[in-house]
């Protein structure tokens, strides 16, 4: 399946024209990036990625994920809440999306909704990779703290799941080691 034929310019010259990539190759080659070009994603491109996230499996079709695309004022509030060291790390990517999950209070449904929200987050990262973008799922402590939650308007009934970083890639990333399938799998008789 062709995931992308889009053109993506980058400040470091990594990437450029992105050839169509099949799904399994995309899964293997998606990486966590910590350096990004300065150009933010266009609103339409963000909307396209979040539209794809709607297709995540979710039990009882609760669509529990919530995405907050961080604008300049929200970023300033978040940096203020994070303090100087944390604030510097919030400058790494030009586009940040807070992902949270609406919790209804039923323990089983809440657990399943968190799983579904994680899948939706992964869809965003994988689809971004398919378009030649770099991504990073980060869980900074500030978004677990009351000040950070308030900075991005997270209500009490939403669990913070991730701060997705998106932008153009600036470096080649080597894949970290993965345990072999045998280490994590058992075929039951
Ligand atoms: C739920 C979740 C939370 C994560 N939080 C962080 C984080 O706070 N900081 C970080 O450096 N990486 C974080 N990561 C990224 C992982 O470190 C990364 O996926 C792992 O090192 C494997 O690298 P890869 O994504 O390039 O395959 C997180 C990933 C997940 C799924």
Describe it:
With 189 residues, this protein is of the alpha+beta class. The chain has one domain (7-172): NADH Oxidase, CATH 3.40.109.10. The protein contains six helices and six strands. It has helices spanning 23-29, 43-53, 72-89, 107-130, 146-151, 181-184; strands at 7-8, 16-17, 65-69, 95-102, 134-138, 158-167. Strands 3-4-6-5 form a four-stranded antiparallel beta sheet, covered by helices on one side. Strands 1-2 form a two-stranded antiparallel ribbon. Helix 2 packs across helix 4. The radius of gyration is 17 Å and the shape is globular. Bound molecules: flavin mononucleotide. The site of flavin mononucleotide has 7 residues, from strand 5. Residues 31-32, 137-139, 162, 176 line the site of flavin mononucleotide.
């Amino acid at each position: 399946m062709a995931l992308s034929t889009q053109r993506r310019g980058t400040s470091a010259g990594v990437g450029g024209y992105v050839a169509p990539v099949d799904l399994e190759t995309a899964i293997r080659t998606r990486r966590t990036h910590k350096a990004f070009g300065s150009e933010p994603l266009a609103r339409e491109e963000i909307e396209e990625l979040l539209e794809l996230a709607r297709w995540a499996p979710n039990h009882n079709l609760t669509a529990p994920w919530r995405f907050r695309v961080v604008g300049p004022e929200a970023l300033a509030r978040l940096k203020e809440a994070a303090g100087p060291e944390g604030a510097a790390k919030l400058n790494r990517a030009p586009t940040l999306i807070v992902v949270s999950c609406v919790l209804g209070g039923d323990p089983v449904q809440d657990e399943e909704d968190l799983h579904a929200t994680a899948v939706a987050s992964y869809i965003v990262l994988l689809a971004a990779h398919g378009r030649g973008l770099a991504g990073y799922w980060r869980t900074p402590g500030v978004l677990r703290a009351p000040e950070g939650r308030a900075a991005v308007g997270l209500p009490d009934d939403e669990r913070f799941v991730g701060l997705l970083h998106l932008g153009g890639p600036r470096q080649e990333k080597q894949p970290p080691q993965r345990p072999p399938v045998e280490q994590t799998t058992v075929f039951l008789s």
